[in-house]
DNA sequence: TTGTATGCGTTATCAT
DNA sequence: ATGATAACGCATACAA
């Protein structure tokens, strides 16, 4: 059996309350007593029992993280950002991936009662109605990636502006026939990026042609598999809604003997770490992925601290276009589409 | 305030013990009572309070995961494997990355008391002595990636066999002057892969030349930066101790105008998801990364279930060589170096 | 088959 | 400044 607060109290010749006061710096303690208690605690290697403390404190110092998946560098970066910020602020992260089923989300949210202080949720496939229905009312929640149709803390990327900047860049390179490889359109972010693509076209006076819009699913495999279809559209450039698909597409084009960017120009989205290592290096819209995670943690902690007086915020992070080789422009240019942050 | 077991008991007109019995399927309950209780619980949306339950049960259903880092696809895959297995077995994952400092490990291990049932620890940079010193004595631990110099559950990859198979393959391609780009040699896995390289050389009667051994740090950046140095060694092939570095090196070679595999053949290690998407596609030693994670979870659960009667196991997972383009051989071949599993 | 009461390890509320 | 002691919400031994 591990050493408890009672053991420390006995060893120091004081009551448990005093030990608690010393360890938490709560209430007044005579300096000499404090020393004695601290010494005893150190000597016995005492560590407070988390569950017991949580029970009375109503605080677990733990943040629940629910993601749709854990596969690939995007989530890796996201979790990394959250982990750094959480550690800095003295929080633990209870991470869980693979939540496609709304019911499953509800279940896991339920079982997290008494285990977490708040929740960071990324559920891009959930419709607003489902979201509203499945979101717990009695626990603080921060949504990542999608805006809620009701007041709720949110951290997301300016997908529309990012996509628009990417496509505008391609248009400025002289491209007229631009295809787009979108994410699954059940996904809000995928729809926003598609919207940015259309917006850029319209602004340039280029007509939006549905046959140039191909729907993928954000995986490398889908980028590879849809390569043939895209090629059949005979575009001179394609905006790929995320880097994973762009990497898959790049591989297909290589095997098909299509030269990028000469025969087909490409721009991706996200700027995952791997993007600079593809060949040709991927021109892409840089999302601050790890910042998305760290901001979510910070926002959640604020909500927790402010309690019921907290008014939800919608944080929109700006993107910037990183010009590398796949778009056919000079390397090293960075184009910022401007930023929006709403409080 | 959330609904507690008392509320359910009152609503169902029974005692709290009966509610507990129904919800946990412990002890006998009349069918009709069971129905009434279940109905009341459902209606009130009752969920047991995790901390309270943990306090009495001595079980948190949570596994602590301590990793040296969270950057890159390797950790992403590792965590994914753990997450899947943990979910299937009804466990939560408390994940924490970035633990370079041994003292920090000790601290975080301490603060996890009462929060986790066991620990999965990956600390490749820790020397055996430090490991022994900092490992908690009163909590179940599974080590990933490195064998401990004392009895301890372990899941690791057969690095020596994997590296040997890779280098032997290169030798069979006719290469005589083979360089190696190792990981940081403070890292046990890095040393094992280097050993496999040397072993293959010796077996082929090729003398081991220290000047052909270049030490990297397992990052893409280091692969890129050490490219010049490796080129100056004028090898005809290089065994790169992990895929991340191989990808960095590939990029350097491309920029330097060196053709892979014609002018320089390359073999990596790990087979991260990205490896098949590089250009040329990376020949590499496939580590079952996500299985590394899932096995760790399974082993930990076994240790937990068996209690003090548990005898530690050392699980060594086999690798296989995946032949793609970067080594200059025909694509699609798979060479298994044989497997070892010690119980 | 069921209810009452005790304890898990801590913090918080009272006395003193 | 300090020590008893009552919660916190649950599972469980024991009584009924």
Explain this structure.
- The structure is a homodimer of 343-residue chains.
- With 343 residues, chain A is of the alpha/beta class.
- The first copy, chain A, has three domains: 5-57, Orthogonal Bundle (434 Repressor (Amino-terminal Domain)), CATH 1.10.260; 62-157 and 289-317, Rossmann fold; 159-287 and 320-335, Rossmann fold.
- Chain A is 42% helix and 16% strand.
- Chain A is built from 13 helices and 13 strands.
- The first copy, chain A, has helices spanning 5-12, 16-24, 31-44, 50-57, 73-88, 102-111, 128-134, 159-172, 188-203, 220-225, 227-232, 243-255, 289-306; strands spanning 62-66, 92-96, 118-121, 140-144, 153-157, 178-182, 213-215, 237-240, 265-270, 284-286, 314-317, 320-322, 334-335.
- Chain A has a seven-stranded mixed β-sheet, with helices on both faces.
- In chain A, helix 5 packs parallel to helix 13 (289-306).
- The first copy, chain A, is elongated.
- Mean pLDDT of chain A is 91; it is low at 338-343.
- At the A-B interface, helix 4, helix 5, strand 2 and helix 12 of A face helix 4, helix 5, strand 2 and helix 12 of B.
- Chain A binds a DNA duplex (16 and 16 nucleotides) through residues 4-6, 9, 14-18, 20-21, 24, 26-30, 33, 48-49, 51-58, 114.
